[in-house]
Amino acid sequence: MDRLRDDRHLCAHPAFVSDDGLFSPTPELVRAHIAHAILHLLSRPPVQGKQLIERYDRDLLGGSIPKSAEDIELVLRENYLGNAKPGSVVSLAKALAKALVGSEAATYKGKENQIAISLAAIGRLAPGLFEEHIPPVIERLGRDLNDDKVLNVCRYVEAEPRIWEWLGQAGQTRVLAKIEHSPLKEVIPAFKARHVPVVGEVLLNKVKTEEIKAQESVLSKAPCRSFVSAALDLYGSSGSFVTAEKRGIEVLLPHAKYFVVNDVERLNAVIRGSKYDQILNASQTATILTQVFDQARQLLPAASSHWSEIAKYIVEKNAASDYDYPKFLSELKKASVPIPELPASDDAETDLLY
Question: For residue 196, what pLDDT is reported?
């Protein structure tokens, strides 16, 4: 294309190319230019330019942008970025990075996740452009955003964890200070960054100052590695069968996938330390433990001894045949977790454990 442009200039503006002749392209050169123009330009669909941002905005507000990360990436790749110029891709990415923190952020209420996921998708579809142009934008936002908007940048972090690093020290410090000094209802956007350990720790300190019902609500809706200890504490403090079942399902289970080996050890201690065995004797505990075990199965064999201790306590308390404990113990045995000898039983499912 550069050669075609240069030759075009020579034809459009006659000039001597030598002392005794004008530029006169050969038939072969002309045919080559025609072929290259068709191949590299005329045969391709039109490229979207300035209208790319307006189109995305219209589609988002109109409801035609999907919600799942996989579907959003597909739509962006096929409908937006496939034939877009690099500059247009960068402009769209920058617009998305500012959408949730700018003056029109209220326009996108309820669409925040789609915007954050879209920004992350561009990072996967155009990694070179994304990594060159977006980090400076994020770093500048961290420094310059108004105090009432600084936490909104956290909405991008769950979908694209590198955003936290790109905020820079100044931006990170501002976010952490804002969380620490604001009431819980004002730091909701920061929970999108809870998987960043330092953010999770500050949020946890904030949550612990709230009433128990508020703690239950937060831990059930925003599970993460930083909240596992608090989830176990809350589960262990259950004062009734009903509470143990509710917290087991709503608080403990969502955190099971974040367990490490020591958490299984703590779970054993929590069950044994429950006053009047409220946890052990709750009708849903066996089912809950089976699901927790399934989600934490990757911790085997390192966690086997702790699961074995839980099984031992169940047998010691003569609960091995109660509720769904036979199924739970069977799952342990199938995973090669040592379980104690069980008393003879007329229950066929229990007998399968021998």
Answer: 98
CA distances from 244 to 104, 149, 195, 226 (A): 44, 39, 26, 21
Is 207 exposed, middle or buried, given 0-12, 13-18 or 19+ CB atoms closer than 10 A?
buried
**pLDDT (tens digit per residue) in 34-65:** 877 777 666 655 545 568 899 999 999 999 99
Contact 202, 196 (CB under 8 A): no
Helix, coil or strand: residue 149? coil
Domain ranges of the chain: 2-42, 47-209, 212-354
Cβ-contact 4, 37 below 8 angstroms: yes
Distances, alpha carbon 222 to alpha carbons 74, 225, 292, in Å? 27, 10, 17
Token representation of residue 106: 């209220």
pLDDT for 165: 97
The conformation of residue 249, written as its DSSP 8-state character, comes to I
Q: For residue 233, give the nearest of 200, 206, 255 by alpha carbon.
A: 255
Determine the residue type at 300: L
Instruction: Name the DSSP class of 40.
Output: I
Cα 153 to chain centroid distance, Å, stands at 15
**Long-range contacts, stretch 168-176, CB < 8 angstroms, 24+ apart:** 168/139, 168/142, 168/143, 170/142, 170/143, 171/138, 171/139, 171/141, 171/142, 171/143, 172/142, 172/198, 174/142, 174/145, 174/150, 175/142, 175/150, 175/151, 175/199, 176/202
Q: How confident is the model at residue 17 (pLDDT cuts 50, 70, 90)?
A: low
The sign of the torsion formed by the CA atoms of 68, 160, 146, 151 equals positive
SS3 18: strand
Element (DSSP H or E) covering residue 16: strand 16-18
CA distances (Å), origin 10, targets 3, 5, 6: 11, 9, 7
Distance CA 213, CA 211 (A): 6
Going by C-alpha positions, the residue among 156, 221, 145 that lies closest to residue 193 is 156
Coil/strand/helix, residue 127 = helix
